[in-house]
Amino acid sequence: MSEHSHSDSTHGRTHFVVPVRYYLATLSALLVLTVLTVGVSRIDLGILNVAAALAIAIVKASLVMLFFMGMRWEKSFNVLIIIGTFFFMSIYFMFTLADTLARGKADPIETSRFGFKSPVKIIKPGEESSRSSHSESPAPSSESTAKH
Amino acid sequence: MSQKEAVFSDHHIAHHFDTAEQEFDSAKLGMWLFLGQELLFFGGVFVVYTVFRNFYPEMFIDANKHLSWKIGSVNTIFLIVSSFTMAIGVRSAQTSKKNVLILCMILTFLFAAGFMVNKYFEYNEKIMHGFLPSKWFSGEGHFETMHIFFGLYFFATGLHGLHVLVGMGLIAWIIWRAQKGHFHAQYYTPVELVGLYWHLVDLIWIFLFPLFYLIG
Amino acid sequence: MQATAQSHGSYLTHPAGIRSWLLTFDHKRIGIMYLTFIVLAFFLGGLFAVLLRLELLHPGKDFFDAKTYNQLFTLHGAIMVFMFIIPSIPASLGNLFLPILLGAKDVAFPRINLLSFYLYVLGAGFAFYSLISGAVDTGWTFYAPYSLQSSTSTISMTTAVFILGFSSILTGLNFIVTTHKLRAAGMTWYKMPLFIWALYSTAILQVLATPVLAITLLLLIIEKVTGLGIFNPALGGDPVLFQHFFWFYSHPAVYIMILPGMGIMSELVTTFCKKQIFGYKLVAWSSVAIAIISFLVWGHHMFVSGQSEYSNFLFSILTFLVAVPSAIKIYNWVSTMYKGTIDLASPFLYALAFIFLFTVGGFTGIVLAALSVDIHLHDTYYVVAHFHYVMMGGTVMAFIGGLHYWWPKIFGKMFNEFWAKIAWFFVFVGFNMVFFTQFFLGNKGMPRRYYSYIDEFQPLHAFSTYGSWVLGLGFVIMGIYLFYSLWRGKPAPANPWGGLTLEWTLPSPPKHENFENPPKVEFGPYDYDKIKAATV
Q1: Does domain B24-213 have CATH number 1.10.3720.10?
Q2: Which of A10, A49, A139 sits opposite B20 (nearest CB)?
Q3: B interface toward C at CB cutoff 8 Å?
Q4: Which helix (H) or strand (E) holds C489?
Q5: Cα angle for residues C168, A95, C222 (degrees, 5° grid)
Q6: Crossing angle of helices B69-94 and A20-42, rounded to 10°
Q7: What total number of domains does chain C contain?
């Protein structure tokens, strides 16, 4: 654990100045990864799309944290705070999903809905909306019913 | 190399600290703790997203078509480049390069403003189609839970946008103090802290972008 | 306040004037301002408790109708939790003593400390507004969908809590940085008083858990105003998700409540037994362990909510785990008392009460952690009794014990020891009358938050209500003698109890800058075996 120093270094103290090449390299990598993530999303990989998007986002986030935020050279306790934060966030995700993903196993009533009033004006798939459409042609997926 | 010229002003450390080093380290530790709590704050938004994406996967894919991945990509690039200019800016303060610092802060500010302008156009379009949170939702769609997606979209991007605006205010404050010569190699703590905050704003968008704009 | 030779030049009198108080950066003055509000919140929350217990004397209407009753228990809970107990020890005693115990001049960020205080006041203001503009009746837990539909002022109350949350976050942030960076020369981590370890662990929870409460309340407010559709089933949402979000914070919150009390316990037990703490490192790290494990158990509030069986199983097992570090502390305090030189002064009486009452609360918590048993006991008076034993029998006893322990140091006055013991007696007896009864009520099936009940429960309810009067009397007596001491109390010596921690080396009350010269720490905080403590 860090203790404060009594040394009289109020002037002329130097902190590590990150060489510009680290910032340039990080910027380039981030831009490339952005192009990559957009590109991958245009291809249909099924369930892998989500995994790929998240993986690339995690790499980008790590680059921002390590180099732009300086975590690569940062004091270990400060890094521990962020690691701890992510640890607790992952608990939050996992334990909540342990519930929401596993509903309905005992009794189907756990996933049905009652008294639901939707504000959405439903249009059938393939039908054009009455307002000018700006989107690509809608995917012909089936309408969701009251279940789930 | 860090000669203090006449254009810089001295910094006096607070009375309860013994050294400037101690004061700087304390400020940084405090900032990292603040970032930790901001991460958990936004974490909740992502948990809601995950839960509902698992509840209504097809609706998410369908609703996503009403978002423009092009504008989203441009915004992502704006924030990434602004993070770069911010990092160079902090480095300039660290090396007493006052004019570079001010230039970098102005560039960062402009990219942030560009982000917000894009956001304005995006929101405007959604509003015109009636894609608003439930109470005011008057849009058309294939799924009856579509209002949830747009409610979440506005909440998440709106909260993030609010943080961008606060960041812009902080950057303007840094510019104002920088031109008075407050920041140099012996003291650049506020620049460092605003820099960390700004990178966090970028970080959150790095996750928001694929989750809202690049679905399916 | 009389300007005696001791208080002349103290932080209380110098600098003078109300502006110097309202704009102070001095952690001690901020602590006093917090203390005032916290005590007021306690009495207000207590008033609501007395009123609701009054209504429960008989089934059916006694004084209030059902809706008012709902408002009474909601306000009792919300005020006690958010305005009293969560800030109680950290914001008052923590602010007053954390820097001094570390040998520092102030906290790391004094201006943020003042901001924390004013955020608290702002939050209290919103809460008060909510009270007078249609007081909330949702229960302090604000469960969806009722909180989304209730016509009462849920938005102003949840906004109040949101603001109070940021006050808490900033206090925690300040304490963590102060502990890392502003320790005096020679004070290593293992020479810090255990109160600091407890406050530090609490601060971790304050910083990391409270933001989740913030986002929960924000989502709730937005859902109420715009109909987001994530919590309200009528709009496609999931009400159990609200519970996950709410309890992810609120379970660590209960450890925010108890940990500082446990820290005070370590101080009281060592000082009044004149003995080295048994197992310093175990007690220190058990605070950290409690902080970490507390994040893993929130679902035990939701066993019957409809969450999946996997969640139920997971949370039940982990809840048994979180009891272990708390138990370690109890063993260590009792072991510390063994062969100590015991001084039964009033602060120590509260420590003894804590040991008994918190143990009862802890055991009954284990009972509730058992999944199958909880099906029977959830939402009954058993739960109400359990949490009052840990929160009041635990935290409040420790808070009062700490307040009495440090009263001479804070104000430079001794209170009347005889009346202190009388008040303690009423508080202890009254507390058990109110709440021990409720274990039986709950086990027999009396649900909580119910306005009326079947006739067979009436004798137990009545007994519990009489207990609330005894308990209230104890607090009234306490208020009187403490307040009186500020005017007529004997001037306090620097070290009335013979403690070894740094605050007892300062005059009572201390000067504005705390230490004239930065202290150099050679001994540990409880090294009674190494030095003879000089009692003035």
Answers
A1: no
A2: A10
A3: 14-17, 22, 25-26, 29-30, 33-34, 36-38, 40-45, 47-48, 51-52, 55, 132-136, 144-145, 147-148, 151-152, 155, 159
A4: none
A5: 55
A6: 170
A7: 1
Q: Which residue of B has its CA nearest to C222?
A: B155
- Name residue, tokens 């080396």: C505
State in Å, rounded, how far the first CA of chain A is from the last one. 50
In a domain, A37, yes or no: yes
- Ranking B74-83, B124-133, C141-150 by mean pLDDT, the lowest is B124-133
Do A22 and A43 fall within a single domain? Answer: yes
Please write the tens of the pLDDT for every residue from B65-123: 899 999 999 999 999 999 999 999 999 999 999 999 999 999 999 999 999 999 999 99
Q: How far is the C-alpha of C193 from the C-alpha of C287, rounded, in Å?
A: 13
Q: Quick one: which of C255, C197, C284, C198 has its CA closest to C391?
A: C255
Domain interval for residue A35: 17-69
Phi-psi region of A118 (alpha: psi -120 to 50; beta: other; left: phi over 0): beta
A117 contacts in C (CB within 8 Å)?
A: 234-235
C436-484 tens-digit pLDDT? 999 999 999 999 999 999 999 999 999 999 999 999 999 999 999 999 9
Determine whether the interchain pair B214/A38 forms a contact, defined as Cβ–Cβ distance below 8 Å.
yes
Q: Where are the alpha helices (DSSP H) in C2-65?
A: 18-22, 27-55
Domain range for C26 is 18-505
Cα-Cα-Cα-Cα torsion C236, C237, C238, C239, nearest 10 degrees, comes to -120
Structure token pair of residue B182? 């407050």
First to last CA, chain B: 53
**Using only C-alpha atoms, what is the Rg of chain B?**
21
A31 CB near a chain B CB, below 8 Å?
yes
Beta carbons of B116 and C194 less than 8 angstroms apart: no
Instruction: Tell me how many domains chain A contains.
Output: 2
**Structural domain includes residue A90:** yes
Enumerate the residues of chain C whose CB falls inside 8 A of the CB of residue A88.
Answer: 208, 295
Chain C residues whose CB is inside 8 A of the B36 CB are 207-208
